[in-house]
Amino acid sequence: MRTTNWQMFRFSYVYFNAHTSIFLIPALITTSHYQGWVAILGGSVLSIMLLVVTFLVGRLKANQAWIDFGMQIMGKWLHRLMVMLLLSWCLYYASYDIENFVLFFGSNYLRGTPHVVIQVIIGLVIVYTASLGFATIVYMSDGIFLILIGTTLFATNLFLPNADFAMMPAFLHVHDWPLAFKDSITVATWFAQWVLFLFVAPDLKMNNKMLKKLIEVEIVITVIVLVGWIMTMLNFGPYLGQELVYPFLEMVRSSSHDDILGKMDPILIGIWSSSMFIHSAFLIHVAYRCALHLTNQRGKKFMLPLLTLIPVAIAYIYSHYVTVYLEHTTSDDNIIYWLIIECIPVYYAVTAYIRSKLRPAAK
Amino acid sequence: MKLLKIAVSVLLLLNLTGCWSRVELDELTFIFGMYVDAGEDPGTVEVSISAPLPNRLQTGTTGGEKGKGYSMVSKTAKNITDAVILIQKDLSRRLEISHIKAVVIGKEYAAQGISELLDWFKRQPEFPLGTYIMGAPGKAKEIAELSPIFEQLPDQVLMNFSKGNMIFATTVKDCVLAESYSMGYAMNYLSFGTNPEQEEQGKPVKWAGIQGVMLFQESAMKRILGVEDSRALSWAAGHFAGQLTLPLYTVKWEGDSEGTASALFYGNSASRSMKMTREGPIFYVKLKGRASITYFRDNAGKSAREMSGLITKKVQEKLKTDIEQSLRKTQEAGVDVLQLGVLMEWNAPEEWRKLKERWIDYYKQQARIVVTAQINIDEFGAIK
Amino acid sequence: MAESILDRIKKELAGCSDAVYQSINLYGHACVLIYIPSIVDMNSLQQFITLPLKNEANGNPDWERFLERLDHGSAFAVPYHKAPDTDRAVELVVSGNALLCFEELPCIYHFQITQYSKRSVSESQNELVVVGPQEAFIEDINTNLSLLRHKIKHADLKTLHFSIGEFTKTDVYLVYIEGLYEPAILEEIKTKLQNIAMDGALGISVLGEYVTKERFSLFPVFQYTERPDSVAASLMEGRIGLLMDGTPSALLTPVTFMTLLQSSEDYYQNFYGGSWIRLVRLLFAIISLLLPSLYVAITTFHSQIIPSDLLLTIAAARENIPFSALTEALIMELTFEALREAGTRIPKPVGQTVSIIGGIVIGQAAVQAGIVSAPMVIVVSITGIASYIIPHLELGLTFRLLRFVLLILGGMFGLLGVIVAVFIIYGHLTHLQSFGKPFMQPIAPLVLEDWKDTFARVPAPYMNKRSTSFTSRSNDRRQKKK
Hints:
By secondary structure, chain A is an all-alpha fold. Chain A has helices at 5-32, 36-59, 66-74, 76-108, 115-131, 134-159, 168-173, 177-191, 208-243, 247-253, 265-294, 300-320, 322-330, 332-342, 344-362. Chain B is 34% helix and 34% strand. Chain C has three domains: 2-112, no CATH class; 141-255, no CATH class; 267-438, no CATH class. In chain C, 46% of the residues lie in helices and 13% in strands. Chain C is built from 17 helices and twelve strands. The longest helix of chain C has 30 residues, at 271-300.
């Protein structure tokens, strides 16, 4: 596999852009109003901290996958527990992906189609993509990266004419520190899924250059989310913004009157969906590696379809109880669950540190 | 092999298809214009939609008299959603609102309150929030009877009125945004009548135009302004109203010589700002423009260039007076069209929190708005 | 040795009445010249074999000296060898050699004077360029090799010979440039070629199917070309070529997706023109794949995308059409496919008729009869024209097939179907490897240095590194002046 660190940049950009660009901003406007930018910056800083910790763990044995050497740090059963947790989280997150996409696409463009059809289609796509292997997923994101950058710039261009820049002073004048702190943590959970990147080794070496590239990705994503948030606020204000479910769509649609540009939203959404598929496929790939580790490499053939079936089933159940789903995604318990999983590298780092301190003492 | 498995799954999926969201183009009725009136009985609303008839609008194959290329359906019901369903019931095709061009509100309905309409618009995913909205004198559905001479459909005429931005260019998004801040907004107020000079197919032609703006606060119409005030207001409200097209100011002078000049502005802008003082906020509205002199006459034979200083001064004064007058009228009506309250929320949130509850009264009685105008004359036309 | 060698040969060639047995008497010793006149160079035969033998016979009888010279290999002016055994000897006769068989001697000598009838080198019919070399390969392998060696005059151009096919015994040459090619690929192809056991290969694509691992991919992993300059350029990029006797095409491998969208014209025009043509080609290749499915998906599921004026026109055009948009599109596409296939197979005299019928029936009458709508005809025609812009027929065929899949998915699931199908195709393409080299390089994986020659073409002096898409031994293209 052709491996460069620049490639990691592109892959992680595509991975993170998928969810944050469409779903993070409405959530943030609802909770944070004018000081969402503080939350974004705060979340970004927290995420970079987690990234550094993840790298420390990954670098302990640069040529071996974490999933293999983790046992030596934590002990066999504790490591298995961690892997199990990670597996369940991946599947749950994938079901969020699917259900989000179904609600988004279904309610806007395919009204009337039963949700199960869309779920099955997406399930098939994810199974296929995940079965292609990690190398192919990274290669695919190379191509998608180019198109994504193009459409992001194009879309931002569409939002500028209607933006009311007089709102900018409000960002500085409104302060509510406890709220900012809480929202920073929420945003951090969106940005800080670095535990998944422990799985890129041994295909790619985890070294300082990759760390630098990933920090750059973090900064770029932060900038883009920030710009997106600013545009949404300037276009819709906090009160209308929190009412809209998908402000980006409304921004594109209301940007021109009866002009083809204002009708471009399905094309933009189509390009965005490809990054969404990569996101889900990577999650399933990680789940696959975890599951294989737990079953000691048995059952390779049918593991992937099984692992995809579970999120589809969860999404199917959720689609029958949409209000429960919406509650779950915006609840605080969700944030805590996410945090627990994302701090897995921290547990390992701490344990490894303690062990390294204890060992000389044991001698 | 994987590909084969997927192909099989897709084939299985084929059995599930009824293609639920699939509607052919010729099974749809596109709503190009929506006209909302207060119903005959109090508490009811009358919704009319205007849709084009594609088979009559066919270009090229057969021209000639075939009847109008558009048609209208009206229904009355307790609320808007019921009325729309009643319309659908009587149509042979499915309604499709994503191509709507204009929404017209009857005067009576506007006075009653349009919050239900705006909420309904917000909730439809297919409804484009960038649709122009305007008010009608009397019943909105009469407007749909205007004869489109320059365009094909009356809705296109109405859309182009707003697009041309000769007064305001209010969209549904502007209204909804203003509502969310609890501020006021304005929309074009149409005029309607028969034009006796022109005739089409033996019947007199009905003609629509714009005769001012309707001022809204809290989703209800509070006041109507005339053309002069509306154009002045539109300049000051540049951000919400769209950049006013071609404002024209004619000034006269006496003294050493008598004369008249008209300045046509090809570029104009307005900015609002706020300063907090101990007695409360002061709002500044700054107007800027670039003019071209389109008419000049001076009986002492002076050239336009010599008089340009005087012309500039006079135009600035007139501009300032006009806008102050229109703003005063909005203050009397209690409609914060320029959304100065939001400016306060952004720049001085603490003080805004104190004033928020009684903002409309404050605006009516105490708000201080200072207007300044600055214009430049770009060129004088083809003669000196 | 109950039968003599001659009898055995005659028995093997029993039904071949075009085999000639010419008896010559040399110093009282009888010898027979066996050959098949239609595949032997009769001039050479007369000049270098028959006449000298006759002159020998008339000269001083010196049988021993003659035998010595025969053994040394200096008896004749043309090279000749001893044939190992009778079976091999028969093979040699039917592949255009002349056998010289002496009654008393146990061995047979054979002269390689094969000459098949062939056509002359003509212009390329299928890969046209306006500026640049016009020659194309012909069926005869030696002429092809001579065309190639005319382009590359370097000792590092190697040609490995294989003989494939039980009955056809076709000469196949594996050509590559030493030091540039990827060794792993060469080994793989060599092994596979050596292990082929089949009756006969009549076209080079059959060989291609044996050699590749990817049996079932829709996309071609080889490039076929009939132009020697394409082969030469590819070899210099580190690719490997396969030439086969009897096929006027060469097979080149490894190949990437972008290579299949390039034509030699791009290099012979100046770089602005070349880049522009490439971009147009790429755009229309995508259009040829996506346009019908997007049209059907948008008009049936997502009419909100269409601007109002266009919407009214299309709606008016569809008013009295009895079929749904998907059915209409399928009818038109199938008709166009039929037209295309008929146009290729039709004998030249009747060719004109087809185009007239196609134009009138499909274009005019079908619309006026209300079977299909005018916008659909436009869509299908643009798609048809766009599909011919792809320079390599293999890829064009793939796109033709995929267009139908996309059309059906788009008609069933709308834009979601199109997006999902494109994504799956993209995933497949990225995963596909042409002999171990990623198919979608340099887009996925992204290799920015190779972009000098992908979507646009930079002027030649700037293209100074070989692409890594084909070989990992990328060297500096510039040779130092000596």
